[in-house]
Amino acid sequence: MRPAALEHYRVSMRIEGVGGTRILFLETDGPALSTAEETSDLIGNAWFEHVGVVAIPVERIDPAFFDLSSQFAGQFAQKAVNYRVTVAVIGDIGAFESRSAAFRDFVWESNRGEHIWFVPDEATLTGKLATRAV
């Protein structure tokens, strides 16, 4: 039985397999993730669905995520670590990086790891997963 919390996102998501990894793609249209509860529901339900990666368009993330002083990005990252799910933020984050050296450093460090990735598009994400599988 699927947890009810995921139904909030069901209309604006799809799950695909890429190189042995199940990816939950949130579509661009839909509600923004703006609370710790919403990120917990999404990550927890992705884990329930045996998804290895949650791909979220930048448009679906509250701008507070990109302001590290809000602690939203750190809380989101901790959930990803706890549930062993990779979160991929898909889209142009250049404006956020240009406003904050700390955020730019966070992106650089995150992209070196396995818990949060920042990629420009879905093709880059699938390419990154292909190299990880090798």
Structural class estimated from helices and strands:
alpha/beta
Uncertain parts? none
Question: What distance lies between the first and last C-alpha atoms, to the nearest angstrom?
Answer: 34 Å
Q: What is the 3D form?
A: globular
Tell me the strand order in the biggest sheet: 1-2-3-4-5
Helix content: 40-55%
Task: Count structural domains.
Answer: 1
Helix count? 6
Q: What percentage of amino acids are in beta strands?
A: 15-25%
| Total count of strands | 5
Task: Report the major sheet.
Answer: 5 strands, mixed
User: Please, what is the average pLDDT?
Assistant: 88
Domain DUF4180: 20-129
Protein name: DUF4180 domain-containing protein
Pfam families: DUF4180
